[in-house]
Amino acid sequence: MSMEKSRNSHGDPETYVPSSITPYAAKTEPTRMSYWTLVTTRNRCEDLDRTLKSIFGQELPPVRVIVFDDGSSDGTKDLLEAYKKKSTTVVRILRRPDLGYDIKRVVRNWNECLAEAEREKLDRSVDFTFISADDCVYPSHYVRAMVERMNRDPLLAVASGTRGIPAPFDGWKPPEGSGRLVRNDILRSVGFRFPEKSGYEPWLVYEAMRRGLRVQCMNELPYEHIHQFGKSHAFAEWGYMPHMLGYHPIFFFGRCLQNLVSGAVPRRIILNMLASYAKAYFVTPSDSFYQPHDPELRSFIRSFQVERMKNVVARFLGRTLQKGSG
Fold this sequence. Notes:
This protein has a 7-stranded mixed β-sheet with strand order 5-4-3-6-9-8-10, with helices on both faces. Strands 1-2 form a two-stranded antiparallel sheet. The chain has a two-stranded antiparallel sheet with strand order 7-11. Helices cover 43% and strands 19% of the residues. Residues 4-28 have low confidence and may be disordered. It has 326 residues and is of the alpha/beta class. Helix 8 (237-244) crosses helix 10. It starts with a strand and ends with a helix. It is globular and about 70 Å long. The chain has 2 domains: 3-225, Spore Coat Polysaccharide Biosynthesis Protein SpsA, Chain A; 237-325, no CATH class.
């Protein structure tokens, strides 16, 4: 598969456009500005308050905020009811009983929010979906900046700001899971729901790219992630995820080595990832949450990563030859 690399206006690598796929048909429409916000939470009342303040404080406010409370036993219920009463934006609150923490339920909660949005016809009457965790704080211009960028580029389907995580070895960084803005067009094209299995966040990014759309992490748009990686979670499922998505082994191990050397990801997380990756590689987990994704998508992702590695090698050899001839 041949791929061409494009760069954004800041010179940052943006995406690899697969030349073998017909680009998604860009529509000539008036400026699109409306969006709704999806938040899932569990027992993070104080963090959620900061998150919601930043969401309701956006220069471009959402038309709807849907929050899924996954059985919180702290003050989350009262906090959400208070926001519902005082906010001029319509707030929908979805809840389930306290069943204990389970990482598998996060994507189910997202899908419940998406289903509620469909019931309210937000999937067709609103332009974008803004997805947030319950521990992220955004500057007031955050969503407006992404909306403006996406209006300038009709093929830009998924965008986010950055928590400051270093980019991979080739400089390209996909949109982050939280703080991302997604065109409802692309969500509708994949059924307006996520697959209920590990890797659902990058799944959407690669599905957009497979359709010839662009994605971007806007490095000039930082936001605060209160609970940074490795503080309260082992992230062992991150090792299952690369195998499920078809990551090339060399690419996966290279990323682990890069994060280990740079210190960007805590060592225990990397070890957990390597252990679960090896386990999934040799023994397919029986749990459906860890079953491989669509074979065609896996093939696309692996080809994409091979192309990235080739570009890195070519760039390295070019610099080496240049030095040798100098």
